[in-house]
Amino acid sequence: MKWTTAISVVLLTALHTYSVSASTVDTYNLILKNDLSTSSDIEGKIFIGGDINMSGRSLDVGSKLATDPKVDAVTVVGDISANDVKAENGHNIVYGGNIGSTNLINNGSGGTSTQQDQAALQSEFDALYDKVIAQSQYYQSLAANSTFDTSDFNQKKFVSGASATDELSVYNISSSDILSGGFDFSSTPTIPVVINVAGTGSLNISSKAQGNFTKELASMVLWNFYEATELTFSGDGWNGSILAPYADISGSTGSIDGGVAALSYSGSVEIHNKLFAYTPPEPAQEVPEPPMITLLLIAFGLLMARKRLQKA
Questions:
Q1: Cα distance between residue 258 and residue 232, in whole Å
Q2: Would the pLDDT of 2 be above 70?
Q3: How wide is the angle at C-alpha 33 spanned by C-alphas 29 and 34, nearest 5°?
Q4: pLDDT at 109
Q5: What is the pLDDT of residue 274?
């Protein structure tokens, strides 16, 4: 009986709970696994897993963030190559690689520019990007409760079917439905919107938001390009945050209004700090420890039980 009790206690100890924070495009204006190359401003926080490649150009970050010297507006794991990188409103610049002749500017009181351990920054970024992938998979797994009417090519309609108890309006659409033409909401959304876009490969999107689908609603919209490997936005801009964990993104006209998470970004459009105003629920899960640890714990439990029996 004592042996059984000891083993049971050890096995229960070998289980633990974990919860993964879902903060991605609801916190960062830009998250890139690889490199950033742009000629335009980014209004919110950025975390770049690769390099900033902007030789001969300047980057302005954080103009729409409230003044706070504890906020790292710019975090770069790799190297920075630019004329200058400026963090607005007293925010910080953190980097792990080389900056060469790049001028780092903290515009406002309290901000600093600091080189930190590159391996530690890489570990921090990897954890963040794991959340990007997990969040994309979570949204893609949701059942659609709304429909996309494509009968009018020039004015396709997102038609909400969400009930009064739903937290999200969820659409599952094909990339071919939004490559060109125009789209609109049938009515102004009252709850956050998730648009899961199926479609692999390179997608050149020139379609235009119309009517109710305005920039003012960008923080209520998330586009989840969960399969695409390349996205080119060539229309009048893009309204809503973008999750594209396996895609390189480029943009050449208008602006991107929302947070962006992708492999890389290269473009000439501003990225506006209109972050997705929703964080998905993430219940804790029971997960077994790695097998070797479990075996060691069991062995320890058996040893302690044996000692107790010898003393009895």
A1: 16
A2: no
A3: 110
A4: 83
A5: 97
Burial class (CB in 10 A: 0-12, 13-18, 19+), 159: middle
Tokens encoding 209: 């938001």
Say if residues 51 and 80 touch (Cβ distance below 8 Å): yes
Question: Looking at residue 23, what is its pLDDT?
Answer: 80
Please give the backbone phi and psi of residue 158, each rounded to the nearest 5 degrees, phi first: -85, 115
Q: How buried is 229 (Cβ within 10 angstroms: 0-12 exposed, 13-18 middle, 19+ buried)? A: middle
Position 208, amino acid? K
Kindly state the helix (H) or strand (E) to which residue 295 belongs, with its residue range: helix 291-311
User: What backbone torsions phi and psi does residue 181 show, to the nearest 5 degrees?
Assistant: 85, -155
Residues comprising the chain, all counted? 312
Give me the DSSP letters along 208-268. EE-TT--GGGGGGEEEE--S-SEEEE-SS-EESEEEEEEEEEEE-SSEEES-EEEEEEEES
Question: What pTM did the predictor assign?
Answer: 0.84
Residues in a beta bridge with 288: 15
- Contact by Cβ (8 Å): 285, 302: no
Q: How many percent of the chain have pLDDT more than 90?
A: 77
Measure the CA–CA gap between 70 and 112, rounded to whole angstroms: 9
What's the rounded Cα separation, in Å, for the pair 113 and 75? Answer: 10
Q: What is the pLDDT of residues 76-128, one digit of tens each?
A: 999 999 999 999 999 999 999 999 999 999 998 889 999 999 999 999 999 99
Q: List the chain domain ranges.
A: 2-19+290-311, 30-272
Q: For residues 220 and 191, give the distance between their C-alpha atoms in angstroms, rounded to a whole number.
A: 7
pLDDT confidence of residue 187: 96
Confidence (pLDDT) at 21: 46
Q: Is 62 exposed, middle or buried (0-12, 13-18, 19+ CB in 10 A)?
A: buried
